[in-house]
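Q: What would this chain look like folded?
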Amino acid sequence: MRIAEELINQIVAHAQETTPEECCGVVTGRGDEALAVERADNEFAHRMRYRISADEMFRIYKLADARGEEMLAFYHSHPRSEAYPSQTDINEAGGLPESLHLICSLENPDAPSVRAFSIRGNEVEEVSLDGGT
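A: My prediction, written as structure tokens:
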């Protein structure tokens, strides 16, 4: 997926603003190019879990559709651990096997990192994030 540094910075800012709880949201765009980051409320408001409500998903879907975009990826943060899917992340991703999952780690607050993963069953594969235009 191609994603501009500005959008990565928006995800990092969201993670920093919500720490110590996990943040979550959706990346929208066209094809493989990310064009927007849509923040969502974490229904769980928890340090180690997140959920985007059906109402929030519908709101984001309508915003993206109005712009001629689609939902390309889901994102969330790991306030205290690395940017790698936890077993909970893997289990939760089962309902969205074709989706890309971005994780923002604040494990090292001075050097946040964002990585992307494809999760199918128990198989986790890192996907490269290329700078956008």
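The chain has a mean pLDDT of 93.
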